[in-house]
Amino acid sequence: MDCIQNVDRDIFWVGGSDRRIALFENMFPLDNGVTYNAYMIIDEKTALIDTVDNSIRRQFFDNMRASLGGRPLDYMVINHMEPDHCAHIEDICRLWPDVKLVGNAKTFQMIRQFYHMDLEGRTVEVKEGQELSLGRHTLRFYMAPMVHWPEVMFTYETSRHILFSADAFGSFGGYNGNLFCDEMDYFDQHMEEARRYYTNIVGKYGPQVLAALKKVGGQEISMICPLHGPVLRGPDMGKMIEKYTRWASYRPEKAGVLMAYASMYGNTEEVIHRLAGMLSERGIRDIRVYDVSKTHYSYIIARAFQYSHMVLASPTYNMHLYQGMDTLITDMGKLNLQGRKVAIIGNGSWSPSSHTFMQKKIEEMKNMTLLVEPMVIRSSMLPEQEAQLAAMADAIAASIKEDEPAINA
Ligand SMILES: Cc1cc2nc3c(=O)[nH]c(=O)nc-3n(C[C@H](O)[C@H](O)[C@H](O)COP(=O)(O)O)c2cc1C
Ligand SMILES: [Fe+2]
Ligand SMILES: [Fe+2]
Question: Do residues 137 and 230 share a domain?
C-alpha cells in the first residue's frame, strides 16, 4: 500500500519510516525510528530526488508506482550517496531502464564504488549552478561538499523555491503523519533530535555547512525538503536556519552548564552533585547532569554543542581515562567542538591522572578555556577540598553570567 503525500504542486513525498531500527549508522540509538525521505516531481519529465534505505524498500516502491501512475521515470537525482539514501539505485535502473542518473562527478565515482554498475549512457553530470528543466519545474544544483560526504549537492526547484537539502536540516524520529513542521509543534517534537542528528552526524563540518548555507542564502526559499524528518516551511524554517548557523559556527545556544561524569562507586558522582548544588546556589538555572555510562554519548554531544560551559569528571582507570569519558571527550574533539568554557575534576586512589588526560584533550581542541586548574580527588573528596570546589563553582557561575548577554543577544 502506498503512503505518499503531496508536498507542493506536482511534487510528492515518496519516502517512509523505520521504527524498528535500533541504531542509526549502527551507532546512534533511536528510540522512535527515523524517516528516509525521497521526493517525486511529476512534470513533462518525471524526476525522483534521492532514494531510501533498504529497510523500507517495499514501501518505497509502492510509493514510486503510486506517484508515477504508470508513467516511466525519466530522471533520478542523487544528492547524497550514503546508502541510507541510495540503496535502490540499481533496482530503479532495472525497473525503469531509460532513467537518467543526475549527479556530479563524485556521485558517479561513488556509484561505481558501491554498486559496480556500468553507467555508460545513463548519466547527466551536473556542475555548480547548472539547471535541468522538467517542463514547468526547473532544478538547479548547488554543490555542498562535506555537508556529510564529499559528493553531497543540494537541488533547488526554481519556480516554487524549494530546496532539497540532502542530510542538512534532517532530524531523527519516525513519521507521524504530519509531513510539514507547521502541522505540528516542531520544536517540541523534533528539536532535540534535530540537534542530536546535526551535531553527531554533520557537526564536524561546520565551515562547509556555513559555505553551503551562504550559497543558497541568496535564493528565495519557501520550503526545505531534507532527507530525514519533517519538511520545513514557515516561521519554524527560519528558526531552524538560525539554529543551523549557530551550530555550524559552534556558537552555544544557551548560557548554562553541561556536567558529564563517570563514576563506578559514586565518589566522583558525589562531587558533581555537590558542585551542581553550589552552582544552583550561585543563581545558575540551566544545569544538565549526565552519567556517561548511562546516557549514550550522542545525547551528551548534543548538549555540549547547546551549552556554553561544561564540567567533566572522571576516575582514573588503568592509568588512563574511564572509557565512557574517553569516548565522549575524544568524540567532541573529532567533531571539532570549540569555544567552550571548561572545568575538570579527576579522581584516583593511587596515582590519579584522569585530569591530565582530560586537560590534554581539551587543550587540543580549538579556543577552549579552562576556567580553573583541574581539581584532583583521591578516592573521595576531603572536607578541606570544599573551598576548592566552591572556588570552581564561583568561577563557573561568574563566567556563565558574563557570557549570558552575548549568547542571548
Ligand atoms: C579497574 C580499575 C582501574 C583503576 N585504575 C586506576 C589507576 O590507574 N590509577 C588510580 O589512581 N586509580 C585507579 N582506579 C581507582 C579509581 O580511580 C578510584 O577508586 C576512584 O576513586 C573511583 O571513583 P568513583 O567512586 O567515582 O568510581 C581504578 C579502579 C578500577 C576499578
Ligand atoms: Fe548522510
Ligand atoms: Fe542521511
Answer: yes
pTM: 0.96
Domain that holds residue 144: 5-248
Q: How many CB atoms lie within 10 A of CB 320?
A: 13
Atom number in ligand 1 closest to CA 380: 21
Establish if 46 belongs to a structural domain.
yes
Looking at the CA of 315, name the nearest ligand: 1
- pLDDT tens string 274-330: 999 999 999 999 999 999 999 999 999 999 999 999 999 999 999 999 999 999 999
pLDDT for 18: 98
Cell of 204: 564536524
CA dist 134 and 277 (Å) reads: 62
Q: How many residues does the chain have?
A: 409
In a domain, 19, yes or no: yes
Tally Cβ neighbours within 10 Å of residue 403.
17
**Substitution site in 269, 292, 349 for ligand 1 pocket (most atoms within 8 Å of beta carbon):** 349
Q: Which three cell numbers stand for residue 61?
A: 516502491
Do the domain assignments include residue 407? no
